[in-house]
Amino acid sequence: MPLILPKSDSIQIREVWNDNLEEEFSLIREIVDDYPYIAMDTEFPGIVLRPVGNFKNSYDYHYQTLKDNVDMLKLIQLGLTFSDEYGNLPTFATDVDDDSHTCCIWQFNFREFNVNEDVFANDSIELLRQSGIDFKKNNEDGIDARRFGELLMSSGIVLNDNVHWVTFHSGYDFGYLLKLLTCQNLPDTQAEFFNLINMYFPTVYDIKHLMKFCNSLHGGLNKLAELLEVERVGICHQAGSDSLLTSFFRIQVGPHFPVKSKFMIRGKPECCGLLHVHSLLCQTRHVVRFVLVFMRAFDLTLQADSHPECPKHIHIFKTVNLVSLWHDCKIT
C-alpha cells in the first residue's frame, strides 16, 4: 500500500518573513519539548567554487569546497519540520470559533541573497525560480540573517541534547546554520567544523547515509519519495516541503531495510568526523565494539555485502555519543 503524507489542506507550511519572525519563534519555543525531532532542509545558490592546491586527502578537499562556498554564498531558505518520536506534527487551531486544528511546518525566507548582485550557480537559481521562490520578495520582506541567528540561539532547538536533527545529505545545511549561529566564516579545518556541529547539534541522523545500508533505496530525496510512493506536500525544491519529506522518511523508511542483520553502535566518539562531498561521515580509528540506536521508529539493518572486514570509513554520521567504529561489532 502506498505511503501517503497528509494532504496539503491538513498541513500548513508557515511562511516566515521579517515581520512575523519573532511570533513564529515564540511558537517554536512552546513546542520543541513535545516535538524534539527536527527535520531540516536548506536552499542556497548552489556550488560556485572549487579549491585548487594540494590537499592531504579527498576529505580535506571536500571540506575546503564546502567552506569556500558557504563562506561566500548566502542562505535563501530554511525548512524545519518538528515531530515527536512517532512522527506526529505539532498542530495549531485554525479558527478560534471552532475546534479544527492544522499540522504545521516552518519555512524561513532570508533577505541577504540578491540575484542581481551575488554570485550563484545558474542551474540552482533557475531550479529555485521554477519552484516558485520569489527572489525580489525575499529581498524586500525576508528575514535578517543575524536576527534569525540570535533567535535560533535562544530557541531551545540548538545546544540541546534532547533535540534530534534529521537531515538528508546535510553537510551544506549545517554549514549554513553554523554560519548563522556564529556570525563567522566556517572554521579552517574539518575537525573544528565537526566540533561545532557536536556542540550546537548534539544528535544528528542523516537519512541519505542510512540508505546505503539498504539494497532497494538509492538516489536523492525525490527518488526516495518515488521509490516509497510518497505523495509530496508543498512544492518540490522548497525547503519546507523537503524538510517534511525528510521527517516522514525517518518513520517510514525503516521497514525497507533488510531484516537479516542489525548493526547498532553506541559510545563516545574517539575520532574526528570527515566530510565527503555534501555529506557527513565518521572515520574509524579505534577498535571498539559499539551499538548504534538509530531511532525507535527505525529497524536499521546492515547489508551483508556492506560489511567488509576492516573498512576505512563508515557512511553514517552521528555526533557526540555515536560514532561508526567497526571491529568486534556483532551482526545477528
UniProtKB/TrEMBL annotation:
GO cellular component annotations of the record: CCR4-NOT complex; cytoplasm; nucleus
InterPro entries membership: CNOT7/CNOT8/Pop2, RNase_CAF1, RNaseH-like_sf, RNaseH_sf
UniProt-listed Enzyme Commission number(s): 3.1.13.4
Broad class of where this protein is predominantly found: cytoplasm
Cofactor: a divalent metal cation
BP terms from Gene Ontology: defense response; nuclear-transcribed mRNA poly(A) tail shortening; response to bacterium
A molecular function GO annotation: poly(A)-specific ribonuclease activity
Domain of life per record: Eukaryota
Subcellular location: Cytoplasm; Nucleus
Gene3D superfamilies listed in its UniProt record: Ribonuclease H-like superfamily/Ribonuclease H (3.30.420.10)
Keywords from the named record: Cytoplasm, Exonuclease, Hydrolase, Metal-binding, Nuclease, Nucleus, RNA-binding, Transcription, Transcription regulation
Reactions it catalyzes: Exonucleolytic cleavage of poly(A) to 5'-AMP
Quaternary structure note: Component of the CCR4-NOT complex, at least composed of CRR4 and CAF1 proteins.
Function: Ubiquitous transcription factor required for a diverse set of processes. It is a component of the CCR4 complex involved in the control of gene expression.
Family: Belongs to the CAF1 family.
Protein name: poly(A)-specific ribonuclease
Gene name, Swiss-Prot/TrEMBL: Vigan.09G229300
